[in-house]
Amino acid sequence: MEQRGRIVAENLVKVYNGQVRAVDGVSFEVNAGEVFGFLGPNGAGKTTTVSMLSAGLRPTSGRAVIDGLEVSQNPEEVKRRIGVIFQESTADGDLTGLENLEVAAGCYGISASEARSRARTLIEQMQLGDAADRYAKTYSGGMRRRLELAVGLVHRPRVIFLDEPTLGLDPQGRAGFWGFIQKLRKDIGMTVFVTTHYLDEADEMCDRIAIIDHGKIVATGSPNDLKDGLGGDVVTLKTHAGASEITTILQALPGVHAIQHSNDSYRAKVQSGETFVPLAVEAATRAGVGITGVTVKRPSLDEVFLEFTGREFREEEGPNATDRAVMMQRVRGQLQGRR
Ligand SMILES: Nc1ncnc2c1ncn2[C@@H]1O[C@H](COP(=O)(O)OP(=O)(O)O)[C@@H](O)[C@H]1O
Ligand SMILES: [Mg+2]
Q1: Distance (Å, rounded) from C-alpha 285 to C-alpha 268?
Q2: Buried-most residue among 205, 284, 320, 332 (CB within 10 A)?
């Protein structure tokens, strides 16, 4: 198997302070060029996993392999081959966009002239050309995220880790940011590992996802496979009041998993709503029962999460104060490492 650009996690465990089991035996494989979403609620262990994969944090046990290199044995080489962008801003506000990129390139030993040319190209790619010579502190949230993405790409990594890159961005900013990610994947064929607690985003943008909850992976697969795994669509049919019952008729139709009947409505779990609806209407009509209303609902990742965890996925407000303090510590550590 080609190792370039691959990410392998084998039974990763992280116990903080001998007591908090933040990551509890996580295993998965990400293929080169994939956009892999790591999805879970706040505190699930996403940032801790990214930190272990990106050589920022030593696992308590288990191992990570990136680009064919065992991370704990080659942390410096791994860091050179990957890009990492954490939740909190790491761009220096008192430098311009271009300067931020040149400084970052310098940290990787890229020559000054090469750094200048890469910085210029990247800043244009991120549509920050007009703001290239402005201090980063004057950038909007979305512009800062794009600058950070550019910083993470300056050394042309094969794998990029993005920890909740769209947290706090408005829908337009989120859509724009994903546009860049998709383009990068297409243009460079880079592997993208992205954490998020936005289910809709993961559903739309990722080739495959893993759902993590309380430090454990509860499901892995493509969003479509995971949703299909729930048994397809949910169709609700309404009939006239007092119409005769058609449960057995509906049950006999192809692709039907289950029918629930209450009052004048039927809730059908079916393989495909599109195929089922016309057949159901026809069968009901033939039995002399008129259908007065139909809804088809494709399951979303919310239902997948519910199925695998037994809980609703709550969209929380964002990091709490403790998480923020932990994050700031990491950011400071990263900056010190660069100087
Ligand atoms: N440095 C740390 N020390 C102690 N506990 C931590 C530390 N970092 C994270 N945790 C705890 O580990 C768990 C997972 O955290 P984290 O990986 O940040 O989750 P996520 O990124 O999914 O929100 C949480 O319970 C969090 O409070
Ligand atoms: Mg996090």
Answers
A1: 17
A2: 205
Per-residue pLDDT tens digits of the chain, which is 339 residues long: 678 899 999 999 999 999 999 999 999 999 999 999 999 999 999 999 999 999 999 999 999 999 999 999 999 999 999 999 987 767 899 999 999 999 999 999 999 999 999 999 999 988 899 999 999 999 988 899 889 989 999 999 999 999 998 887 788 888 888 888 888 788 878 999 999 988 888 999 999 999 999 999 999 999 999 988 887 888 999 998 889 999 999 999 999 998 989 888 998 989 889 999 999 999 999 999 999 999 998 888 988 888 888 888 865 444 444 454 455 555 555 555 544
**Yes or no: domain 7-223+312-338 corresponds to CATH 3.30.1330.30:** no
Class of domain 231-298: alpha beta
- 231-298 has the same fold as 7-223+312-338: no
Atom of ligand 1 nearest to the CA of 48: 17
Cα-to-centroid distance, 77 and ligand 1 (Å): 26
Which one of 51, 58, 316, 326 would you pick to mutate in the ligand 1 pocket, going by the greatest count of ligand atoms within 8 A of its CB?
326
Q: Could you give the strand order of the β-sheet that contains 191-196, starting from the edge strand earlier in sequence?
A: 82-85, 159-163, 191-196, 35-39, 208-213, 216-221
CB atoms within 10 A of CB 14: 22
Give the binding-site residues of ligand 1, using a 6 Å CB cut-off. 16-17, 20, 22, 40, 42-48, 322-323, 326
Ligand nearest to the CA of 53: 1
Atom of ligand 1 nearest to the CA of 87: 21
Ligand 1, closest atom to CA 49? 17
**Per-domain boundaries in the chain:** 7-223+312-338, 231-298
Nearest CA to ligand 1 atom 26: 43
The rounded distance, in Å, linking the Cα atoms of 61 and 23 is 10
